[in-house]
Fold this protein.
Amino acid sequence: MEIDLFSILAALAGGFFGAAIGSLHAFVFTGVLVIVGFVAQVAVPDAPIISSLAFGPAFGPHIAFAGGVAATAYAARRGYMENGKDIVLPLAALAKPDVLAVGAVFGLFGYFVQKLIAIIPGFGAITDSVALTVVISAILARVLFGRTKVFARNNTGKSGFDSFEPNDAGSWIRAQESFGINTALGVGAGLFASFISITLLQAFPEAANASTFVFGISALSLILLSAGQPVPVTHHITLPASIAAATFYPLVGENAALAIIIGAAAGVLGAWFGELFARLWQSHGDTHIDPPAAAIWPATTIVLGLGAVIGAAG
């Protein structure tokens, strides 16, 4: 595990940046860098833009996005703002240095946690350590700054899983919460992402990270959400789908059609996980615990774990 002062300072700056411009906007920049980074790798295969910038200690979601999430939770707890789940507001507008400092501290926290997860034997290599770190950081922020429990229930008095159902008083994305549309988005966005991933893999086999390209597109599309347009949130669908398609493509004899069908199945899995975690801790909580990040790491772990098992057996 390589840790140096240069990266530590960058992580502090990344968390500060995410808080200053707002978590969602910081994540959009991640998407831009993923797209630019892949294009750069086509020309220079070892170009470090994706690893060192998009998912590194400046723009990595576990640092910039997570830092902004924690700073928002803190600002709400201090009474500087009303909504502790408002990941759109640029917190520099609050003119509170302590809020930005919390973002910086959580950026550094995310840097160390991700490094530790990545070196866990037998687990770090088959999971998305960045996404898992985003979740861990957000849970810590709720414990420290939130007033609701981590698993927050609705106000209906229902029991069991019904007590987590979204309603007008608390929800994540109402247009995506029903089983039908959620599954349809999983299939459609999953096929879309898988096709692009396989196409890039075939055209540029020397360029790594083809499976992250559509994730970048999904992240970039959220700038429209920030502008008030009801675009779907899909990065928890497109990333597992792309990873599955790229992972299983060589395992199925480079049968592209079969690979993108497998990718679509992984997309559905990501969609289902996203809605599950939205209900468990996002819809009725008072701080943001990111459903897409919560979906990405188990979906990725399942995909890469199955790929490793099938690859070893073959």
